[in-house]
Write a structure and sequence with these properties.
heterotrimer; A alpha/beta (231); B mainly alpha (228); C mainly alpha (232); A: four-stranded antiparallel beta sheet; 9 helices; B: mainly alpha
């Protein structure tokens, strides 16, 4: 579903990613872990077609980047730590806007469906600026799945959420966003990543330093694996 | 699987979204309007706008006001996209990126025209300047606004991505927009002083040339401005 | 270590020589103009610097397009060099022009199309540097710089045409004739020698400075690279 080969990204003289080989099978939920500055966000932005790779090949959902980026974007849903919502529009209007941007016809029923899934149906006519951070993040998930994408990318979705909100987001991520989709998530929160993901890849110093599936990990815990891979 | 929307539909979705949000908050329009009135007030005393002076400076005063108010609106309109990461949301949509340029440019133009539609009658009222309400004068205002907004939208997409974003836009925009502002002043000033259509044809032509060139260039280079 | 190429050293020497010769031709060789006297001698360097200033502006816009097409950072260094060198020459042009305008037009400055366009161009250059200063990522800096030189290159000629309109209706201090008419003169053949040699001399100096600036740019990048290697 996702495949990168020898992916290199430079910002000027700084090389952020130095030859990342990474692949995700359909239906997998991969947690991308790593210290700050390892290039996780940059990597995700490249997968999302927001950033151009300097070298190497990237394929998402059968299309290669950056040349077929419009096709990739049609099959892609992104949730970042910013909600990507307009505070002066209602929840419904925000979703309407994104539905139009994705060329969905008859979006009214789809919007109701999505709002119900993320548990915001009663607040559909309320301005997003009145929403709590957690609610905004749930609506952001609704926004990301409005066009029923095949691949989901989560970039630190828990940033700025308290315990309750994080738990609620967990539910929504699991039941709405991840269900039947291929997912790549970056996170600092090892406990939550351990809960959600089926595979763990460690990105360190611009390369994938280690990778393990949930089954392989059963004997050791994720924290030990993480520490060992970084050093 | 959803199909990609047409270029036109995506453009209009952005315009509709901007107008709906602005209709609710009125942050941008009220700032532009109040600012315009203040500029005119200052000009009134700074230039002592009596009837003789007005003869020659009305067009200049109006265009200066619109240009200043315009940068305010352009800055704000792009900052809204940048601040909460909404620009990423737009860039993630499966449409050609120049649709984003046209969407933002059309809503910026709409804001500018709304401000002009309020400021011009007010100016006419304050100074008993009924010649403002001739069709050719309003046509010049429209052409000038189009050129100014086309370059301004492109440059505001650049300036919001810099460290010095708030101060940078007018510095980038004004020297490049000199032709559009001066040609507009020339043409509209001529009309106010009773020039015939043939007499203002040259500035009008230059205005149209500028509009066409800069819309085309902005269309071509917008991708370079938003990519990473 | 990259040592200075011999060709560059030779060009440096040639530049100094042609500058000296151009100065001799302008100040001594060319006959004194009858009406304006010695101040007219400023004209040779004025046109010479204006020519390379303009050349640099066009070169920068072309380099900008080339960068956007190829994404090769060498074009970016080329563009910066052209803008920097031509900013300096344009500034000299304006100063020399003022010195000449004072006795010829009886004013240091007039809003003549040429002068105004030169001033606006200078402002575009300054805005260009401010834009670049505000961006960390070198690639983005290059892209935005290229887009801006392109916009500047397109608007400057239209600025010139637009300001001409103002002059036909609003005569400036120098009367209704064109700027050239007041203080205009026809060149004798000796003047032409000095004039064309000045054009040639400044073209050589322009190339020399461009070369040096581009070299400086790549050395700067090397330094950055070395610093980065140490910190790794």
């Amino acid at each position: 579903m996702i495949e990168t080969k020898k992916l290199v990204k430079r910002f000027g003289l700084k090389t952020i990613l130095r030859g990342v080989d990474f692949s995700v099978q359909p239906g997998e939920f991969v947690a991308l872990l790593g210290p700050n500055g390892a290039g996780k966000t940059t990597f995700l932005r490249i997968l999302a077609s927001l950033s151009r790779p300097s070298l190497g090949s990237v394929k998402v959902a059968g299309y290669s980047l950056p040349h077929e980026s419009a096709q990739v974007r049609a099959k892609l849903g992104v949730v970042s730590h910013m909600p990507l919502l307009y505070p002066d529009l209602t929840a419904e209007e925000n979703l309407q806007f994104y539905a139009r941007m994705y060329g969905i016809t008859n979006y009214q029923s789809r919007i109701t469906e999505v709002l119900q899934m993320v548990g915001l149906e009663p607040r559909r006519k309320d301005l997003v600026r009145t929403f709590s951070r957690g609610m905004q993040q749930r609506l952001a998930i609704g926004r990301a799945v409005i066009h029923d994408p095949e691949v989901m990318l989560f970039d630190e979705p828990y940033t700025g959420l308290d315990q309750d909100a994080s738990e609620m987001l967990d539910d929504v991520l699991r039941s709405v966003a991840a269900k039947g989709r291929t997912v790549v998530m970056t996170s600092h929160d090892l406990a939550r990543a351990e809960d959600l993901a089926t595979r763990f890849d460690i990105l360190s110093r611009g390369v994938i330093a280690a990778s393990a599936t949930q089954n392989e990990l059963q004997s050791t815990n994720l924290l030990a694996f993480y520490k060992q891979s970084i050093n | 699987m959803s199909p990609s929307p047409s270029f036109f539909k995506a453009t209009m979705a952005i315009v509709y979204k901007d107008l709906a949000a602005e209709l609710r908050s009125r942050e941008l329009l009220s700032a532009m309007l109040v600012f315009s009135m203040l500029v005119i007030l200052i000009f009134n005393f700074a230039l002592e706008l009596d009837i003789k002076v007005r003869q020659s400076v009305t067009a200049g005063v109006l265009w200066t006001t619109f240009a200043f108010a315009g940068t305010l609106g352009l800055n704000r309109s792009m900052a809204v996209e940048k601040d909460r990461g909404c620009m990423d949301g737009l860039l993630l949509a499966p449409v050609d990126r120049s649709a984003i340029f046209f969407g933002k440019a059309i809503s910026n133009l709409a804001f500018m025209l709304i401000v002009e539609a309020i400021v011009l009658p007010l100016y006419a009222l304050l100074y008993n300047e009924v010649r403002i309400f001739q069709l050719s004068f309003l046509g010049v205002i429209l052409l000038g606004s189009i050129g100014y907004i086309a370059v301004g939208t492109l440059l505001s997409a650049m300036s919001v991505q810099t460290r010095t974003r708030d101060v940078l836009l007018p510095i980038l925009l004004f020297p490049v927009a000199v032709p559009v502002l001066l040609a507009s002043v020339k043409a509209s000033g001529g009309l106010l002083n009773g020039a015939t259509f043939a007499e203002i044809l040259t500035p009008l032509n230059l205005l149209i040339v500028y509009d066409v060139i800069f819309i085309a260039v902005a269309f071509m280079v917008f991708d370079f401005v938003v990519e990473e | 270590m990259q040592s200075k190429p011999i060709a560059l050293t030779i060009l440096d020497i040639i530049s100094i020589i042609v500058l000296g010769v151009a100065a001799y031709l302008a100040l001594v060789f060319a006959p004194t103009e009858l009406v304006m006297g010695n101040v007219q001698r400023v004209f040779y360097f004025h046109v010479g610097t204006a020519w390379v200033g303009l050349l640099g502006f066009v070169v920068a816009a072309i380099a900008g397009i080339a960068y956007l097409v190829t994404k090769d950072m060498r074009w970016d260094r080329f563009e910066v060099a052209a803008v920097e060198v031509s900013t300096m020459f344009f500034f000299i042009t304006i100063v020399l022009g003022s010195i000449w305008a004072r006795p010829a037009w009886n004013t240091w400055w007039t809003w003549d199309p040429r002068l105004t366009t030169a001033a606006v161009t200078e402002l575009i250059y300054i805005a260009y540097f401010m834009l670049r200063q505000g961006i960390e990522d070198p690639e983005k800096r290059a892209r935005f710089g290229a887009v801006y030189t392109l916009l500047g290159g397109l608007s400057a000629p239209i600025t010139f045409m637009v300001i001409r309109l103002f002059r036909t209706i609003h005569p400036v201090v120098i009367g209704s004739q064109s700027a050239e008419a007041q203080g205009g003169f026809s060149m004798t053949s000796d003047m032409k020698v000095a004039f064309f040699f000045a054009l040639f001399a400044f073209t050589v100096i322009f190339i020399d400075l461009m070369w040096r600036r581009i070299r400086l740019g790549s050395l700067q990048e090397k330094v950055e690279e070395l610093k980065l290697n140490i910190s790794m």
